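Pasting as-is:
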Amino acid sequence: MINNKIIIYTGGSFDLFHYGHLNILLKAKKMGDVLLVGVSTDRLINKYKKTKPIITYKDRVAIIKELKCVDKVIKQTSFFNVNQLKRYKIDIIVLGSDWKNLLFPELENIVKKLHCKLIFIPYTKRLSSSKIKEKIIRNSYDIIKSQIKRKRDN
């Protein structure tokens, strides 16, 4: 806590920004006074998802910075860089519940080192960047047809 303000941290790739992303950011902000958001670099996303993001790091950062609920954006080159996060004196780390089983016990150790709480927010199951990509792939024929028609009409 800095100047009696509760510092919240969350992070993500935020590729193909959607309501699920907004949902976690809004809920995280309600838990404290200052919301710090780590945005994963293209290299980090490629490393753990084995695919490149659709939207560049620079553009994803620009989107997150414009949100009223976000107070500061942090470059996330690795998951939960303890030395980087210590500087911000974080009180609470907020993650989507889809992360619950991914990084334990590593996450527990990080929380101990940072002397903070860890809170999971229910994952927005109906929507994810992966589901959006799958939908685009399923509809690719119609999308391509539409693009060709638009080019012809212009």
